[in-house]
Structure formats: C-alpha cells, structure tokens
C-alpha cells in the first residue's frame, strides 16, 4: 500500500470509506435513477416533495457538522450559528430575487416588496447581485467576515463558556430584529420567496430539484471529509486540547486565540454555504431562520447525535428533522415539548449521543 493510500485509510478508516461509498451510490445513482425512470405512482418513484425534504435535511446536516467542529471538538458552545446559515441563504436569495425580473406581481424590475414600499431603485448593497458568481462570493464572505470580526474581539477578550453562548445568542437576536424591519431592504418579516429561475433553469422543475439535491449531497460529503481531515490533523489535536485544557495549551506555547478564531470562521463559512443550498430547495428565506430557537435546535442535533463525532452530528440532524417533518404535521402544538424532552433525555441518559449507543457494543466486546 502506497503512502497516499495509507493516508487516505488513516483519514477515515476502511469501514468508514465503504459506508461513505454506499451512501454516495445511493445519493448520486439510486435516487436520480428512481426519480427519472420510475413512473409516477410506483413505489420506487420519489416525489419532488421528498427530494426537497431530504435535500433540506442534508443542508441541516452540513450545519450540524460545522457546529460539531466548534462545539464537539473545540468546546465552544455557539447559540448563534443559525445567523450564519441565514446570512448565506439571504445572499443567495438576493440573486434569486434578481432573477425573477418582470415576472412578479407588479411586473417591475424591482422585487415586489420594494415596489410595495415605493422604492425607486435597488440599495447599494444589492449591486452586482444579478451575477451568480458575485452572490456565491457573498455567501462565503459575509458570514465569514462577520464571524471573524466577532470572534476576534470575543476570543481576544477571553470570553468563553456560558458568557460566549449568551453573546452569540444576543448577536443572532439583534440581526433577526434588524432583518424584520422593512427599511433594511431584505423583505421584512416575509423575507424572500417566489423564486423563478436559477442559472437560467426553472427552479420548480423535477430536473432542477434533483440537480440541487445532488449538489447538496456532494457538499455534505465534501464537508464531512474536510472536517474529518481537520480533526485528524495536528490542528485537530490542538483544538481538542483547547477543549480539554486551554490553559495547558497556552503554557505549552500555543496561542488558543488563533486556533479558535480559525475554526470559528471556517464553521461560519460552512453554515453560509449550507444556507445558500437550502434557499432554492425550500423556496423561501425570512428572518425567522435567525431566531435563537433555531440556533438552540442546532445544538440539540449535535447533542443527540453525539458531540465529537462528525457522523453522529449528521445522524442527529437527520433524526430530529425527520421527526420534526412528521410531528409538525400530526401534532404541531406538541413539537416544541417533544424537542425539549429529547434534549432532557439525551442530557440525562445519552451523554455520548446516539453514536455512543452504536459504539457501546463494540467497546463491550473489546
């Protein structure tokens, strides 16, 4: 076995690569094939709703991996990651709103909400958003820049623990209130919706939805591999040491501020990309995505799946959001109680999350 193959095996393990290959085959081959070949009404046919639902859950899984990097491996509990997710969605939503053109209700070059508020032109920060490449750049830069500036002052001031969590929650709440205002130019409480086209293709067709689904699956796998590379590298060992004993890391000659700021910014950028993939599949983005409750829910995904386990974070996001899609239809008034019950039970009986249950028989046999 050559050095490259040895490095790849160490990165994820043989069994991990086999499982990843099976998941990739399902997402990239079986799903598109069943959607295109199977006739409507057959058991193998996958509806557009199901494709969009699974695509949405995969976007949430990407966010869970980003959250696990900062909380599970670095020990920094963020209650504001929903902000970065929403900002990435808004940056992509601006481009999608520009692509509506004169197909809106008022048949104007401006979005309907701007016409309703008697705006005469786009605000300056909407400039160049008609170009996809520019909006894609904003998806990365805006969440990343905000996270870098916020993290620079917070980490340099040695704010950590519950104080950091409260500040991140206050930050996302402040942005939510800002985006709720009509005069900010982001659609107020309605946000952005009624998208028509993306890259020239109708956004509501089955082919476009499947393309977005495939792109999201690819991004999830890339994010998982990238995160796995980080946590298995020297950087990952330093991050874990910061989580377990930050003062010892400092006395060993490392500056924890630099490491925490780097992983914090990377985590925010990943959330922004997930938000950009989420918006065209769901068809709407509004300030409610910035609510502190959404950010708390992200932490519950990771806690349920298992902190410090990238696969566990994905499992947690899938379980919670799968249950949410069912229970909010059957028992909408009881969903929040059920979510709170999940968090309590995980805290009391599953400190290692669901992934801990899967690993327990193996540890027992060993």
Ordered list of secondary-structure elements with their pairings:
Elements: H1 3-12, H2 14-37, H3 48-72, H4 81-98, H5 112-116, H6 132-156, H7 162-180, E1 192-193, E2 197-198, E3 201-202, H8 206-231, H9 234-251, H10 256-282, E4 284-285, H11 292-305, H12 310-330, H13 335-349, H14 353-365
Antiparallel strand pairs: 1-4, 2-3
Helix pairs in contact: 2-8, 3-8, 3-10, 3-11, 3-12, 4-6, 4-10, 6-10, 8-10, 11-12, 11-13, 11-14
Structure keywords:
366 residues, two-stranded antiparallel sheet, mainly alpha, disordered N terminus, 2 domains, single chain, 14 helices
What does this structure look like?
- The protein is mostly helical and 366 residues long.
- It has two domains: 63-290, no CATH class; 295-366, no CATH class.
- Helix content is 71%, strand content 2%.
- The protein has helices at 3-12, 14-37, 48-72, 81-98, 112-116, 132-156, 162-180, 206-231, 234-251, 256-282, 292-305, 310-330, 335-349, 353-365, and strands at residues 192-193, 197-198, 201-202, 284-285.
- Strands 1-4 form a two-stranded antiparallel sheet. The protein has a two-stranded antiparallel ribbon with strand order 2-3.
- A hairpin with a 2-residue loop joins strand 2 and strand 3 (201-202).
- The longest helix is centred in the C-terminal third of the chain and has 27 residues, at 256-282.
- The protein is globular, with a radius of gyration of 21 Å.
- It starts with a helix and ends with a helix.
């Amino acid at each position: 076995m050559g050095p490259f193959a040895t490095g790849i095996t160490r990165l994820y393990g043989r069994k991990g690569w086999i499982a990843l290959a099976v998941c990739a085959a399902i997402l990239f081959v079986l799903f598109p094939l069943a959607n295109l070949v199977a006739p409507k009404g057959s058991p193998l046919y996958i509806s557009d709703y199901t494709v969009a639902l699974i695509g949405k859950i995969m976007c949430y899984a990407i966010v869970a991996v980003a959250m696990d990097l900062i909380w599970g491996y670095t020990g920094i509990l963020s209650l504001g990651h929903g902000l970065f997710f929403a900002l990435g969605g808004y940056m992509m939503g601006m481009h999608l709103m520009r692509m509506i053109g004169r197909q809106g209700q008022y048949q104007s070059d401006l979005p309907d909400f701007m016409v309703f508020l008697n705006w005469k032109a786009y605000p300056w920060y909407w400039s160049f958003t008609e170009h996809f490449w520019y909006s894609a750049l904003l998806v990365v830069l805006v969440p990343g820049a905000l996270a870098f500036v916020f993290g620079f002052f917070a980490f340099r001031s040695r704010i950590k623990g519950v104080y950091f969590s409260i500040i991140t929650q206050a930050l996302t709440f402040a942005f939510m209130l800002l985006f709720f205002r009509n005069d900010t130019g982001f659609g107020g409480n309605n946000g952005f919706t009624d998208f028509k086209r993306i890259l020239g293709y109708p956004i509501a067709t089955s082919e476009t939805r499947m393309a977005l689904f495939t792109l999201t699956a690819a991004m999830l796998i890339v994010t998982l591999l990238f995160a796995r590379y980080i946590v298995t590298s020297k950087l990952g060992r330093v991050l874990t040491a910061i989580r377990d004993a930050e003062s010892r890391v400092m006395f060993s000659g490392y500056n924890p501020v630099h490491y925490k700021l780097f992983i914090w910014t990377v985590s925010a950028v990943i959330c922004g990309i997930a938000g950009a993939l989420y918006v065209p599949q769901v068809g709407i983005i509004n300030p409610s995505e910035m609510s502190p409750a959404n950010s708390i829910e992200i932490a519950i995904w990771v806690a349920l799946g298992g902190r410090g386990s990238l696969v566990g974070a994905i499992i947690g996001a899938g379980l919670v959001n799968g249950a949410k899609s069912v229970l909010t239809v059957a028992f909408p008034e009881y969903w929040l109680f059920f979510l709170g019950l999940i968090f309590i039970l995980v805290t009391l009986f599953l400190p290692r999350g669901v992934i801990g249950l899967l690993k327990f028989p193996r540890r027992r046999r060993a």
